[in-house]
């Protein structure tokens, strides 16, 4: 059996934040004598003096400061628990499954998630990144993917992701002059992001080698280490381009490519509840990231 209660500690917290028993009593709809009694019982049960009165203001003792600092995170967690229970009781969605293609701009994604968290603190987002040809995501509530599947009209264009042909500034391709053609490119490995073969400029009969990587980060690292050249999402290498570490290749054609991302919602979601409506709105209206 616990000697003290969260209610008593909460009253102590209120008294210290408001600076007086009277203000704490007003906030908690209690009488001042009730607040005083509970705090007296709290101190009696733990056997430590937690506060004293200086003039008209309640002041914590050193021991009171230490203990209240330990208790405040518990009070905050308990208040969150009660709010979460209230959300469940009122039917508010507590979990939302979001799937995004791995090329979706990270800065834009994290900005959306941060704002969503602020607006719906009791709805948890389960985020999954997928490759272009992955299709095992039909059960997700919201999807940002390249394939505009037959979702009963629930899909729409969201954005184009720009890819640029780049190589490290010291790569031999940058010493070949302008108007690079397929024959010159074929001398060096193409760094390819898995399942994005449509960015290859060589056809199947070309003798050029290519290396496939399953993540964008790995492909970027390979290009950075001069393993080869490749088409990389421009947003993901903005710093490297700005610093001149990576440079856009002077190709005769095809320097820039684009992939379209579509915004889809789960087919059986008939009515948009507030969390899903908010997420859709944020994904649509989040500002495009400036890139060099």
The secondary-structure class comes to alpha/beta
| Low-pLDDT residue intervals, each spanning 5 or more residues | 200-207
In total, how many beta strands?
11
State the helix count: 9
- Average pLDDT figure: 84
Radius of gyration equals 29 Å
Terminal-residue CA separation:
63 Å
Beta-strand proportion: 15-25%
Q: Would you list the SSEs in sequence order as H and E?
A: HHHEEHEHEEEHEEHEHEEH
- The coarse overall form would be elongated
What would you say about this model in short?
By secondary structure, the chain is an alpha/beta fold. The protein is built from 9 helices and 11 strands.
Keywords:
22% strand, seven-stranded mixed beta sheet, two-stranded antiparallel ribbon, 9 helices, 292 residues, alpha/beta
């Amino acid at each position: 059996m616990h000697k003290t209660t969260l209610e008593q500690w909460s009253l102590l917290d209120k008294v210290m934040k408001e600076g007086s028993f009277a203000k704490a009593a007003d906030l908690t709809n209690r009488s001042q004598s009730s607040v005083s009694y509970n705090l007296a019982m709290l101190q009696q049960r733990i056997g430590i003096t937690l506060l004293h009165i200086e003039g008209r203001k309640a002041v914590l003792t050193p021991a009171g400061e230490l203990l209240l600092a330990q208790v405040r995170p518990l009070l905050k967690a308990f208040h969150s628990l009660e709010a979460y229970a209230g959300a469940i009781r009122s039917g508010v969605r507590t979990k939302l499954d979001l799937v995004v293609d791995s090329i979706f701009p990270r800065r834009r994604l994290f900005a959306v998630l941060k704002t969503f968290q602020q607006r719906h603190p009791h709805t948890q987002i389960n985020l999954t990144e997928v490759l272009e040809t992955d299709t095992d995501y039909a059960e997700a509530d919201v999807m940002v993917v390249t394939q505009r599947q037959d979702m009963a009209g629930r899909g729409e264009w969201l954005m184009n992701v720009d890819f640029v042909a780049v190589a490290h500034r010291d790569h031999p391709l940058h010493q070949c002059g302008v108007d690079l053609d397929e024959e010159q490119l074929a001398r060096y490995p193409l760094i390819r992001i898995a399942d994005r073969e449509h960015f290859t400029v060589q056809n199947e009969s070309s003798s050029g080698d290519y290396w496939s990587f399953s993540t964008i980060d790995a492909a970027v690292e390979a290009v950075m280490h001069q393993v080869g050249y490749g088409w990389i999402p421009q947003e993901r290498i903005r710093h490297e381009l700005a610093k001149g570490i990576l440079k856009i290749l002077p190709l005769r054609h095809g320097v820039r490519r684009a992939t379209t991302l579509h915004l889809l919602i789960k087919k059986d979601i008939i009515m948009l509840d507030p969390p899903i409506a908010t997420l859709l709105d944020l994904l649509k209206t989040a500002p495009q990231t400036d890139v060099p």
